[in-house]
Structure formats: C-alpha cells, structure tokens
Amino acid sequence: MADTTLPVRPVISLDKGRDAPPPPDPRRWWGLAVIALAQLIVVLDMTIVNIALPSAQQDLGMTDGNRQWVITAYTLTFGGLLLLGGRLGDLFGRKRSFIIGLIGFAVASALGGAAAGPGMLFAARALQGVFAALLAPAALSMMTTTFTDPRERGKAFGVFGAIAGAGGAIGMLAGGFLTEYLEWRWCLYVNVPVAALAVIGAIVMLKDPGRRTGAQLDVLGAVLGTAGVLSIVYGLSEAASRDWDDTRVLTLLIGGVVVLGIFTLWQTRARTPLLPLHIVKDRQRAGAYLTMALVTIAMFGVFLFLTYYLQGIKGWSPLKTGVAYLPMTACMIIGSTQISARLLHKVPARVLIMPGLAVAAGGLAFLASMDVDATYLSHVLPGICMMGLGMGATFMAAISTATSRVAPHEQGAASATLNTMQQVGGSVGTALLNTIAASATTVWLTDHRVNPAQQTLQAKTALAEATVHGYSVATWTSAGIILLAAVVAGVFINVKAPSRQASTAAAGPAGGDPKAGAVGAPIHAG
User: Where is the composition biased (Low complexity) (predicted)?
Assistant: First the structure.
C-alpha cells in the first residue's frame, strides 16, 4: 500500500507548481517609473517644440512656408512607422526595442539641438519620429504584459494615462521655460539626459517579456502599411496650408486609402502579418481605437487654439502660457490615479469613458464661449480643469481596453495600432479644425466688411474678434466630436468589469479556466 501511494504526492506537487502562475516581478513598480519616463519623452516632444518654434524660425532663417516641417517631420515618421515599430518589438524583443529607441531618440535630439540650418533640424525631427515609433509601442506592450492583476493593472494604467494625457501640457510648460530662460535648442537637448536616465533604469529594472521566435517580418506589409499611413498623414498636414480640394491633398488622401486597402487584403494572406486583423476586429478594441482617434481629433486643435489665444490675443509670454496649463495637468492626474485607477477593476470601462468624455465636452463648451475680453478665471481655468478631469478618467480606461485580451506575442501590434490611431487622429484634428477656424474667421470678416490688411486700430480689433470667433466655432466642433466619441464607446465597449469577469469565469463549468477572459489574461485568437 505504501509503495503505491508514496509516488502520488510528488506528482500532485509538480502539477500544482506547473499550474501556478509565476510570481510577479518585485521590481515591476520601478519598471513602471522607467516606462512612464520614456512615454513622457515621446509625448512631451510633440508639444515642447511648438512654443520654441518662433525663436527657432528666427535663428535658423526658416520661412513661414517651411516652418511647419519642424512639427510635420516628427508626426509623419512617428505615425507612419508605428505599426512596423510595434511588430519589430514583438519579433526581436520589447526591452531591446525600448533601449534602442531611447538611445536613438537621444542622438536625434542632440542633432536637432545642434542644427546649423533648417534642413538639419527637419532631418533630426524625422529621425526622432523613427525612434519614437520603435519606443512607444515597446513601452506600452511591456507595461501590459507586466501588470496582469486587475487591481495592479488599474494603478499602472492610471499612471500611464496621466502621463499620456498630461505630457502635452508639461511640454508646453517646459518649452516656455527653456525658451525664455535658456534658448530654444534646450527644448531638444533636454531629451539627452532624461533618455540616458531611462536607459540605465531599463537595463536594471525592466524584464523582457519575451519575443516570438521563428517568425519572419512581413516586409511587404511593412511597406504597404507605412506608405499608406504616411500618405494620409502627409495629405492631412498639407490640407492645413492648402484647400481640401487641392490636387496634391486629394491624391495623397485617396492614394493612402487605396494603399491601406491593399495592405488590409494582404494581411489576410500573409504568413506572419504585420497587423493580425483579429486585433482590430474585436469589438472592444475596435471601440477603444475609434474612441481614442476621435478624442485626439478633437483635442489637438483645441490646445493649439488656446495657445494662440493666450499668446496672440492676450499677449502672454511662452512661460506664462505654459504655467496656465498646469491646473489641467493636475486634474488629469487626479482623473487617472484617483478615479479611473480606483474604479477600473470594479466597473465596466464605458462607465468611466462615457461620463469622462461628457465632462470634457463641458470643458470645451467653456472654452468655446470665450470672447476677446474673457478672463482666465472665468473661462479658461474651468474649461481646462474639466477637460483634464474628463480626459484623465477616459484615457486609462480606453488604453486598458485597447490592449487587453491580446496574446503576448501580439501586444506590440495592438499597442502600435492604438498609438497610430492617436497620431493619425491628431493630424486629422489639426488639419480639420484649422480649416474650420480659418473659414469661420473669413466669413466673419466678410459679413462685417472688414479688411484685415488695414492697420487701423478698428481693423486690428475686428481681426482679433474674428480670430476668436474662428477658434470658438472650431472648439464647438471639437465638443461635438467628443460627444460622438462617448456614443461610440457606449455602443462598442460593453465588456464587463474585470472583477465580474473573474467571478463569472470562476463560477463556470467544471474544468474551465478561471482566468479566461479576465482583463490582462492573454487570449490567443486565430
């Protein structure tokens, strides 16, 4: 009897060891700090140069026609190469991609800061976008695979969402400070020591979640996907300075859509697709992607208008303008860490997203009602605080939904798709809202029979009123887009709260996996 029962005990022990999940990495919260720092560099660099642009233009002799390339060169390469960058991280290792992205970004920033002419600065900004496209999806996918417990995941995404949302405002503040007290070149040089610190932290604190061995890169898919996105982003950038019916704009936009159609068809046949289509076919992720795209369409232009309003209409300095955004940053952090992070594992994602977007739309209504004589305390402050609170509650819930329930070897593709939606959405928003604002300003001047070329005080006052009217019309449009995003989230995103998913799975039929379907648990589709 003893001989037959003794061997059973070690078998049971081994089975339990095999079924038990690996213990969490004790350095994961330090790793989150490193990932958040890297994400801040990427997001911050999209706005920090905006406030420094007038000084850079004067110093390097840029024309009004080509100065836009300081911004466009970065967004073009960043948005166009994100899918490729995400897939490279899946295939060759996220930690490796993360570190290479940081080093390359720092080198490109140093080159931009040392630029001797416009061409060198444009090239450096494009190079920054290339390495940002490698860095951003690696950062998000590493965080997603590191934090799988619903409660910890909520806290982690709270920090990440706050960084993603507040980075733009922090960039404006940093850009104003560095430009006013040092010089515009430090808006690029500052990335070097920050990136170096992040590299050291990554080497020490981050654990590579692994890579997919034996797979090949979809070269044709990479070419088609990158060309399609680049064409659309470039077309939208050109639409800001040309008419929407311009031949070049239409050719770029239509051509980009056609190429992306061919890309989609190829992804159904490729052996190792760049973007596995089941990632975007999933109802929850599709809703999160579309929601984030609409939100960035609405928000990018508003920040631009508000900056021009404070500096151009109110005559504020770059530093004072940057400081004015600080309350929004604080509210965004509160919305992410004190609201979403505490509730994400308890309530469905849309219960956070829909009210958050409604609050943000209310903030936009405050900004849209501004006139030339509006004050910071009466309109700007309540508007940006409501926007910050709403966006903070929205971002982390949408990001978590967009990257949940994805196989580990496809996290890079899912993360890159989310980043691409944001980049393309930002380009669409800037072009669309700029066009709406310019058209509304022209109509106002025509209706009031004002000649903006006149230099009289009356003409200048009227031009200021017309400009603010244009901003108002565009901001009301943004509020409508935000409400549309709330409707999209309500219709598409119907996933249960993680705690309810776990309870439902645990109460399922005997023999089922109690972890199946929980947020953060990988699901291998296809």
Answer: 505-526
CA contacts within 13 A on the Cβ side of 123: 9
Split at pLDDT 50, 70, 90, the class of 212 is low
pLDDT at 261 over 70: yes
Asked if 104 contacts 127 with a C-beta cutoff of 8 angstroms, the reply is: yes
For the chain, what percentages of helix, strand and coil (3-state, to nearest 5) are there?
Answer: 75, 0, 25
The two structure tokens encoding residue 525:
């589709």
Q: Decide if 185 contacts 246 (C-beta within 8 A).
A: no
Task: Determine the pLDDT at residue 488.
Answer: 92
Q: What is the C-alpha radius of gyration for the chain, rounded to an integer number of angstroms?
A: 24
Q: Measured between alpha carbons, how far is 166 from 399 in angstroms, rounded to an integer?
A: 15
Dihedral angle, C-alpha 8, 11, 13, 16, nearest 10 °: -130
Q: Which two tokens stand for residue 239?
A: 């639409």
* Better-predicted residue by pLDDT, 343 or 256: 256
Half-sphere exposure (CA, 13 Å, Cβ side) for 292? 28
What was the pLDDT predicted at 24? 62
Do 136 and 42 meet the contact criterion of CB atoms below 8 Å apart?
yes
Tokens describing residue 312:
């151009």
